[in-house]
Amino acid sequence: MSRFLDASWHRVAQLKPRLADHVDVQKHRYRGHPWYVLVDARNARSHRLTPAAFGLIHAMDGKRTLDLIWQRAVELAGDQAPGQTEVIQLLGQLHANDLLVCDVAPDSAELLSRLDKQSRSLLWKNLRNPLSMRVPLLDPDAFLQATLPLVRPCFSTMGLVLWLVWVSFGVALAAQHWQELTGNLADQIFSAHNLAALWLTFPLVKVLHELGHAYATRVHGGAVHEMGLMSLMGMIVPYVDASASAGFRDKWQRVLVGAAGMMVELAVASGAMLLWTLLEPGLLRSILYNVMLIASVSTLIFNGNPLMRYDGYYMLADWCEIPNLAGRGPQYWYFLINRHAFGVHKPERFDATPGEQRWFLWYAPLSYLYRLSVMLGIAMYIAERYLLLGALLGLFYAYSLLLLPAYKAGNYLLGHPTLAPHRRRAVLVSLGTLTALCIAVGLLPMPMRTQFEGVVWLPPQAQVRAGAPGFVRTIVAAPGQWVQPGDVLVICEDPDLAAQIQVYQAKIAGIEAQRLSEWRQDRNQAEITRHALLQAQADLARARQRAADLILRSRSSGRFFLERGPDLPGRFLHQGDLIGFVVDPSRDIVRIVVPQADIALVRHQTEAIQVRLAERPEHVLQARLLREVPAADTELPSPALATEGGGQQALDPREKSPTKAMNRLFQFDLGLIRPQQLDAADTPVLPYGTRAHVRFEHPAQPLASQIWRRIRQTFLSRLAV
Fold first, then answer.
1. CB environment 139-173: b (16+ within 10 A), e (fewer)
2. How much is the mean pLDDT over the chain?
């Protein structure tokens, strides 16, 4: 019975509390278990209680003393009843939120102190996150109630059907104009005039977004008493406090409130898409483009993301029936660490179902890592344009997301009374874990790899091209036949060339006869005739060479493939036209592009190379480095490596070429290593132009050095510092 008692119980035992008149009680079910929600009608705040806690609150009628209420709870529930310490904590929380009324006169000074504390809490919250500051401005509830009859039909089944049809229509229009919408996307978004239009358009779209939340709350009976402005990543946008929806008994009503803002934006995006297709290029069309971008891509990526505390998070929490998912996740991790690492067995269990505990395990770390990456990414993006501001913002986020949590963890470890009996073990476990982590990250060598994209490449000698203009007469080598250097592949003919050769031969014979006669009579004229003979002989040699070039021969050994197929005979070919390939599978080449940041690793620290073709990713081929193009270039070997072709390299929006990359890249040729037991003629031929994924194995290094190398390269490439 000692665990139920508290030394300060005598201070509250004779109080006769009751719930305030402005508090409404709702019974909810979460994951099959009953819970009770106290809704404050003044500010629409809600507070969730367990059945045991609500049993105490329900017995508080302003007539019975707190001691009598607690003793009856112990008689009914026995060991399951809350202890005196838990009752005092519950009373403190309800009192701090003005949900209880007692039989003693209110302390005006204490009330003013609480109001001042709430104001300081709001100010501190704004200072902790300057990119998400909130400034309440007005109470929109009267306006919402007056205009609700006009909006209520939108929240019916027919309204949902019409919304689906309208948004589907917008998606179909976007698909039809996809190339025009996404072509030169970066240049369209980040141009100076478009950024100004985006800055002005964003708040207007978000007004409609927030009204969607407000009306969805009001249509189901909730009140919305706060509307104001907030700073969101440097932009001033409106917000409404729709927390009254937490008191809705039906979870799908709560999900609808979270989704209403995004649904409104998607409907607006569809309307903007329709008008955009009807207008000519100009200012209004540019504004509509921004509206589409904000109301579709932006709202789905940010508002729809459940890892940040926006609409997607609240929808997820309501759908999986875990209120305060983001807050309880870290608490569960603290419980696990205390229990299993530090040996603290009080409390004996964490107040959560097994299903909730599984959610807490993955959501808490993923949410933290995602929030950290987004905040540092924002700081890096701003630093590219305003170095000092981005650096200050990065330091602030490093402090709030890294240093401050570490400082709080240290204070908890060294000073929290819960750890008093186990502090030695807690400190030793923490130091041991930190030491092991430092050794693992800073000293233990870890595999280091880099990965790039390339294409299966044919060397120039593998290409069979027409050596002279003419008509194809005969295909000597059958397609797929193995040929050797010098073997005849295709014979072409040029009837005019044969006649020209006869003319040159007759001309040479006449000049030789003329030169013999002049040699006896006029030596000077004979010398002039000799030069004419040499010119005629050169013309004949060129004609004979063109005749020889009409016979296409293989320059290497390999399997012969025709480019144009069996309809080639009889076709006229210009000089240089490609007609086929001679491919030696044992000499396949993969040409890759390497960014400047990784060029030193590829050149000097390569231990092994593995290649996987996009068509057959399950097969791993070994390769060796053959050659390197000595200078970096922006020209890609193939359009398949560009983002438009499914690759990784962004194209320069200022160029129309499908192979002009944004950044300068180095090109390397890799030779595939085939098993020695395979004969070259039996080796399968890789399809020319296929995308290949290439992984370079480098000497193992500790993770710390690998991470530092990437950070240093990022600063050098993006910030030039």
1. ebbeebeeeeeebeebbeeeeeeebeeebeebeeb
2. 80
